Amino acid sequence: xxxxxxxxxxxxxxxxxxxxxxxxxxxxxxxxxxxxxxxxxxxxxxxxxxxxxxxxxxxxxxxxxxxxxxxxxxxxxxxxxxxxxxxxxxxxxxxxxxxxxxxxxxxxxxxxxxxxxxxxxxxxxxxxxxxxxxxxxxxxxxxxxxxxxxxxxxxxxxxxxxxxxxxxxxxxxxxxxxxxxxxxxxxxxxxxxxxxxxxxxxxxxxxxxxxxxxxxxxxxxxxxxxxxxxxxxxxxxxxxxxxxxxxxxxxxxxxxxxxxxxxxxxxxxxxxxxxxxxxxxxxxxxxxxxxxxxxxxxxxxxxxxxxxxxxxxxxxxxxxxxxxxxxxxxxxxxxxx
Amino acid sequence: xxxxxxxxxxxxxxxxxxxxxxxxxxxxxxxxxxxxxxxxxxxxxxxxxxxxxxxxxxxxxxxxxxxxxxxxxxxxxxxxxxxxxxxxxxxxxxxxxxxxxxxxxxxxxxxxxxxxxxxxxxxxxxxxxxxxxxxxxxxxxxxxxxxxxxxxxxxxxxxxxxxxxxxxxxxxxxxxxxxxxxxxxxxxxxxxxxxxxxxxxxxxxxxxxxxxxxxxxxxxxxxxxxxxxxxxxxxxxxxxxxxxxxxxxxxxxxxxxxxxxxxxxxxxxxxxxxxxxxxxxxxxxxxxxxxxxxxxxxxxxxxxxxxxxxxxxxxxxxxxxxxxxxxxxxxxxxxxx
Amino acid sequence: xxxxxxxxxxxxxxxxxxxxxxxxxxxxxxxxxxxxxxxxxxxxxxxxxxxxxxxxxxxxxxxxxxxxxxxxxxxxxxxxxxxxxxxxxxxxxxxxxxxxxxxxxxxxxxxxxxxxxxxxxxxxxxxxxxxxxxxxxxxxxxxxxxxxxxxxxxxxxxxxxxxxxxxxxxxxxxxxxxxxxxxxxxxxxxxxxxxxxxxxxxxxxxxxxxxxxxxxxxxxxxxxxxxxxxxxxxxxxxxxxxxxxxxxxxxxxxxxxxxxxxxxxxxxxxxxxxxxxxxxxxxxxxxxxxxxxxxxxxxxxxxxxxxxxxxxxxxxxxxxxxxxxxxxxxxxxxxxx
Amino acid sequence: xxxxxxxxxxxxxxxxxxxxxxxxxxxxxxxxxxxxxxxxxxxxxxxxxxxxxxxxxxxxxxxxxxxxxxxxxxxxxxxxxxxxxxxxxxxxxxxxxxxxxxxxxxxxxxxxxxxxxxxxxxxxxxxxxxxxxxxxxxxxxxxxxxxxxxxxxxxxxxxxxxxxxxxxxxxxxxxxxxxxxxxxxxxxxxxxxxxxxxxxxxxxxxxxxxxxxxxxxxxxxxxxxxxxxxxxxxxxxxxxxxxxxxxxxxxxxxxxxxxxxxxxxxxxxxxxxxxxxxxxxxxxxxxxxxxxxxxxxxxxxxxxxxxxxxxxxxxxxxxxxxxxxxxxxxxxxxxxx
Lengths: 337, 337, 337, 337
What we know:
- Four copies of one chain form a homotetramer.
- Chain A is of the alpha/beta class.
- Helix content of chain A is 30%, strand content 22%.
- Chain A contains ten helices and 14 strands.
- Chain A has helices at residues 15-24, 61-66, 78-90, 106-113, 131-138, 149-164, 194-197, 212-219, 253-263, 313-328, and strands at 5-10, 30-36, 53-56, 71-74, 94-97, 127-128, 143-145, 173-179, 202-204, 226-232, 239-246, 270-272, 290-297, 302-309.
- In chain A, helix 3 (78-90) links the parallel strand 4 and strand 5 (94-97).
- In chain A, helix 6 (149-164) packs parallel to helix 8 and helix 6 packs across helix 9 (253-263).
- The longest helix of chain A has 16 residues, at 149-164.
- Chains in contact: A-B, A-C, A-D, B-C, B-D, C-D.
- Chains B and D meet through loops of B and loops of D.
């Protein structure tokens, strides 16, 4: 098959990188190239069962141009993205960074990542890649910062409520988030060993997860208006978040669902469940979809919204490909389900 | 082994009943007897691998006395408990009912179970069996209504906060609850088939679970002060609940933990995690323990409490044996870990 | 997208049918149509989240022609396939039957399915659709009987050994097979409820599985030369079979692997692991691949072959689409990974 | 509780060690003491939620005597057991070693563990602790080598067949073994991380597992008569082994089951399934039981035996306590279910 664009994948051995490869190997217009950026390191075996080209380069502008790449997807830790992104941008290719390196302001980064941002001058250029909320800025953009997995599910659930002005912000929102284990990445640790996770469940990073500032940034909530807890599900993939709010102005569940229906009308990847039905992870895993359902008790003014995505799909690789499609001017849904 | 008391188990083929059997088979003072109350029904095979006596009786007073039973544990649906409890009480044996038949007031029962209570005159006699909150009433009681699994974890987490007066009730509490599949009982259904549950996660009975009124009854919260959601974990057993609250009077996480430490000092089955640590299900499954941990952000006044139990242990069979020990005047911890 | 062929899917609510839908919705040349063959039954909700056309028909020749179908895939129980296949063939459409209705001889069917075959005259027409062994007969065929999941993995592992004449048949072969739960289909049963399967493992249908005669038929082994056991893995999908044999003529593991390499050279969906490596289910799930690895101890003449497929992919829907591609004269790999 | 004997547990942080603690904490006559043998190493937190005494000692004879220990259970890697066992025996305490350090002959050890045995003079003293086959030697023994988990399930299934002389040894036996992940121990590795194991299944150490010589030693089979494969189940605990054999002398399944019934009559921990029923892991996990079922096809002379244990129970800690009971002259079943 001859496809129009070549896109490099750095970090293809991690879970998000492998998912990028899986998606791009069947993309109609983009052909993946595996980038082994740790040139000079001891040879490692190529990943099993892939048909794509594999090159060991240092991602210098010359090398990137020589490979004919139109874009590079960085599925790398933020430290590596901070090193590679400037080099790639200087080479003139489009960059989609899946790490947290370029999502926050310089001061936000310093607070949550415990280090001064080494490339603050690049931050204004990085478009936050949540297409349902920022499609215009993303179209044609050359540098896109792909959202975190938890914030993607949270913001798609919360932002329509804030926009519609129906939340009692004084009472605060709660976002109780649960993620499959692949969200923790492929690094080996006792915390993600099978016998610690299977047949168990636990909370972590309560009230202080690095993804919180991304939610606040998009929703423009104040820090004391949101309580967020991340929890580890004994499954491979999928994120489900349960959002609780109170409202003095909403009249019915029908009105609540109408807010989502209106906000996401025509969106190819957001599915709003009918009244009486709530999404589960089976409906979204291995897709780029976000499924949203809601319940409202008009008598007491309490609302619950459930938002589900595949953390490796809409929460990482799927959304990155959606952003790359928009950046390249392709059909936004190309190669995605 | 010659043991002092004989206790019948009705409903021993369900998950809670099987767990009662597992616990009582190693209890030092109580010997289980399996009651097949559907006398006359076609013969069914006895459960595999148990050494206990099995009798098919209709639970008439004469039969119960003839068997020499001191107590009967009802691990039966509430419809069956409603039928058996009066008959057993008339026979003079102690009754521990694990169903929801006798937990609520007559009006509460009618609202949540969609039927008028057929035995309202028995309700005042039924002691709500949460020993950590009602130990005095339980000691020696002849009719104990064993709490629901969700309310046990919720009330042990919430009640100390309400007692201490530290919750901003106007802002409301959220209880986000997750349960293993055995909580749904053994009846076969598509919703609990392996391929629907494994590698998935979903919410159900949002804001309207039958266990909500039990939480309100114990905590004396108003209905509009609590949002409760039940969710299905892809595991066999275990409940973890994440409780969110706001406080204008608490000064620190240390103060929050001190409330629990004081409230549960000397309790054999409540474990309060040290600061910085939160419970997971591995620490409580196959035990009668409840493990509680807490986080508080003093700057914004937001608190999170995590409460974990085994839904078949402290949430059902373990607590029933704890109650039976108290009813019979035995050591409260006999036969339990 | 305008695609060349319309293919009906009967039984689209089962696991294999849903997988057919998932595959065909991204097939470049075939467009799926969901067939509700139980016309007249009470209306059921359409399956969630699919974009395909849905028609309620009785599959009469007139209806089938009116819908413009080129083919129908039967993901139905064998009783339903026995009823629909003749009607569809009479309508002139291609039929791929995923059930066991047309796989065996009339006498074999009667023995293993405990009923006389009601359509024996159709049996000679039904081509056994294992492309790697019967590609020529399948190309252009109008009636294809799709192999069972267990026999697909078994025959791809065993047949090359038999062909090469390296097996000591007197000592017998053992095929120890393990399958994910979706292999049992979507019908609700206690045996496949979550709490019976999770954290457990068990054997069933030992020495007498209905799939045994399919293995014997293809391999031409005698019944006393093969011991086959099916076992239930606590996972959603995937089959791994471990085949044991003895050989007096093989000299080395290298020779054993060379047999597979030669037999499957150029096959797009069979992957032979290099020496020292064995397949796992992660490498084949959600694909149409069969992965095969082998170990041989030359000193004692004992060999072990491991064969892995996705029971819903190469074991059912994937292989059905591969067969449909061959039947229609399309690229055999179209729409498949 | 005042209990008669103190037993040290070395390696209590591993899975087998933690299970020893769980069992001994409810043992009527033995009280556990946690031994931190790496004295001088940086302080580590004590294990959560245990009530037992914890001492940091180097296991010198003086220290061991000072602690008043009657026995020490070594749940340690074989390298550590090789170091500690002589020191403990010199101190005069009973030693139950759960590692492979003292199971094989010196030459067998050298072949399978790739190092010369450093304490060959101790080997004759070490009794192989499989009570159902060696009860007399174990009773009162001071040094017991606890069998491996795979060989326990295998030998209990195979040995009665060999003893009864019904196996056609020329055709060979196959033992296809599957184990939960805790069998791999607690050391962190990529191979046992959640996302590599969950929803997957794989074989390892085919034909060359270190446990093979233990099976040959007990059964007195020759190496070319047994093919053994170990496989990784995506569950926490439990081993199920499927044994295949051929017989020219057995007449019926009834005769096969009678062999097991006779061999294990009166055994408290071996359960032979009735005809038509086969064990699963739910029946044995969290117990010291071995459950055995069998199928025989008299027409073709092929037999299948299924053997199930908890790898941490009868396969490790449970059996170690059974051995300790025998060594101390206690009731063999004390503290065990």
